[in-house]
């Protein structure tokens, strides 16, 4: 059974509006809601009936731009009202489903008679969006300080402001039987691979679910392998990162009500490349990226190596260091596995408590709790000070991952490796690592290899993988995206220009 078939079976069915159902029935059903207004307005020309949800309509615009104009302008037909009411796109409709959807999106339904089969839909939605603020999750010292908000129209504006080209296409869907969420797919038609675009549009349009509140819902439903702990799409709150992804040929998904955008296809290496790397010199960016990749390895294997060495392979430890370890564990009554699990679980408890508490309280709990509990555990003989240092460094190393979802995956991977280290030592770690590598080799993102450019090997893409070369060396887009236009610019023209006085 495919994943999309399973989702369709799990979908909660809801009552669908019959297009042939009269508009009067829709209005009569809505009257039972206390926030729905349905009344007759008397004007010098003739009386009209207005129906709307007053919690979804801008009251000032309703009175100033609609009611006052109806009372001051003569009219005899609905078409004549469209000539003097300038509130967006006014539509004549007799479709009950269209009227129902419009009412739920802040439209006013205008009829001459209460039982008329034809009405005029006037958009007057209330504007209650959050102001554009600085990024909170992907904050950078240098670079733009704008982040997405919960309004889809504002987010598209932030993207179009950075890519003002007509080739930037948007395809919008309504997803969710209850939430009726607006979901938009963005791509640059002249660059993006058509297969990637079709795959993304098909997966988004095939979603059958009752409510889609955030882009993370979409993220989980369109992944190639939902059983994998590794995220297969990058979610970001930065419009500049989305603009850069579009220029590379990637496909973006925006959801109304979510400040996070989904970018794909992506690779494993991209999760460890902070967008701030492109705002500093390539030397520093390459060093920082290498530090992050080493931190991931250290975060996963540091504690399991400690457990496996002390349990099975103490002979590989130098004698001077072995004497220090024996001295630190002389009063510890527990085996290394229990000692390690105790500290790892404690670190996760502190992290979770700090994330759920208010900001200032959470910071205090994380700092004071870590110091107090760590010191008390060593003094009480529950753990050794050497393991405490290793676990603390491993926790810090996991936080260097720029993408939050990948950081959670890295922290999760430590526990099966710790258990394997207790069972068979270094042999178990090697076998488990092989299984992990096989899993990564089988993963894909929108059908593209997840381990590119390592596998399949693409040497040209290494210029922006483990390290970052200068921009004049990056004349081609990533090969694994198979874009329509592989060239970013002419590499020959990007050579160093002569100064004015050198040409004299």
Describe the structure concisely for a colleague.
Helices cover 44% and strands 11% of the residues. It has 16 helices and 12 strands.
In words, what does this structure look like?
This is Spore germination protein. The chain is an alpha+beta fold. The protein is 44% helix and 11% strand. The termini are far apart. Mean pLDDT is 87; it is low at 1-17.
**Relative helix content:** 40-55%
Q: What does the main sheet amount to?
A: 5 strands, antiparallel
| Estimated radius of gyration | 29 Å
Taken as a percent bin, the fraction of beta residues is 5-15%
Order of H and E elements? HHEEHHEHEEHEEHHEHEEHHHHHHHEE
Give start-end ranges of low-pLDDT stretches: 1-17
Helical run tally: 16
Which structural category do the helix and sheet elements fall into? alpha+beta
Q: How do the strands line up in the largest sheet?
A: 1-2-4-5-3
What is the global morphology? elongated
Average residue-wise pLDDT:
87
Gap between N and C termini: 73 Å
Q: Give the tally of structural domains.
A: 3
* Number of DSSP E strands: 12
């Amino acid at each position: 059974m495919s994943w999309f078939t399973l989702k369709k079976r799990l979908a909660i069915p809801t009552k669908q509006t019959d297009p042939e159902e009269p508009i009067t029935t829709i209005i009569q059903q809505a009257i039972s809601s206390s926030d729905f207004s349905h009344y007759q307005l008397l004007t010098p020309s003739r009386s009209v009936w207005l129906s709307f949800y007053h919690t979804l309509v801008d009251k000032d615009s309703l009175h100033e731009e609609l009611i006052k104009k109806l009372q001051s302008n003569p009219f005899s037909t609905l078409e004549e009202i469209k000539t003097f009411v300038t509130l967006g796109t006014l539509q004549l409709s007799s479709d009950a489903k269209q009227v129902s959807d419009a009412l739920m999106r802040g439209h006013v339904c205008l009829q001459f008679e209460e039982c008329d089969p034809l009405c005029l839909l006037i958009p007057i939605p209330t504007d209650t969006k959050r102001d554009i603020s600085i990024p909170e999750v992907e904050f950078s010292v240098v670079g733009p300080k704008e982040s997405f908000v919960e309004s889809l129209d504002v987010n598209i504006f932030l993207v179009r402001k950075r890519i003002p080209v007509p080739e930037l296409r948007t395809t919008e869907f309504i997803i969710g039987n209850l939430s009726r969420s607006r979901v938009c797919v963005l791509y640059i038609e002249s660059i993006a691979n058509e297969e990637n675009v079709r795959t993304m549009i098909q997966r988004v349009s095939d979603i059958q679910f009752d409510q889609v509140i955030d882009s993370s819902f979409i993220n989980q439903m369109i992944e190639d392998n939902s059983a994998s702990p590794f995220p297969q799409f990058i979610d970001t709150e930065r419009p500049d990162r989305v603009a850069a992804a579009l220029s590379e040929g990637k496909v973006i998904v925006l959801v109304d009500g979510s400040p996070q955008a989904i970018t794909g296809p992506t690779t494993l290496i991209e999760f460890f490349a902070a967008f701030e790397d492109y705002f500093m010199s390539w030397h520093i960016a390459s060093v920082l990226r290498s530090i992050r990749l080493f931190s991931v390895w250290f975060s996963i294997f540091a504690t399991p190596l400690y457990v496996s060495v002390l349990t099975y392979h103490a002979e590989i430890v130098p004698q001077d260091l072995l004497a220090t370890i024996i001295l630190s564990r002389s009063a510890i009554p527990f085996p290394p596995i229990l000692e390690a699990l105790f500290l790892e679980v404690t670190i996760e408890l502190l992290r979770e408590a700090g994330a759920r508490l208010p900001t200032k309280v959470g910071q205090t709990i994380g700092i004071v709790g870590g110091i107090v509990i760590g010191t008390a555990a060593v003094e009480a003989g529950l753990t050794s000070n050497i393991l405490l240092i290793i676990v603390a460094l491993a926790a810090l190393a996991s936080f260097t991952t720029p993408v939050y979802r990948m950081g959670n995956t890295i922290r999760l991977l430590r526990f099966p490796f710790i258990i394997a280290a207790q069972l068979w030592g270094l042999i178990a770690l090697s076998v488990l690592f092989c299984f992990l590598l096989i899993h990564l080799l089988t993963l894909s993102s929108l059908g593209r290899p997840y381990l590119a450019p390592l596998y399949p090997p693409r040497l040209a893409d290494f210029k922006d993988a483990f390290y970052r070369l200068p921009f004049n060396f990056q004349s081609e887009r990533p090969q694994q995206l198979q874009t329509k236009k592989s060239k970013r610019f002419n590499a020959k023209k990007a050579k160093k220009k002569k100064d004015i006085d050198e040409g004299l």
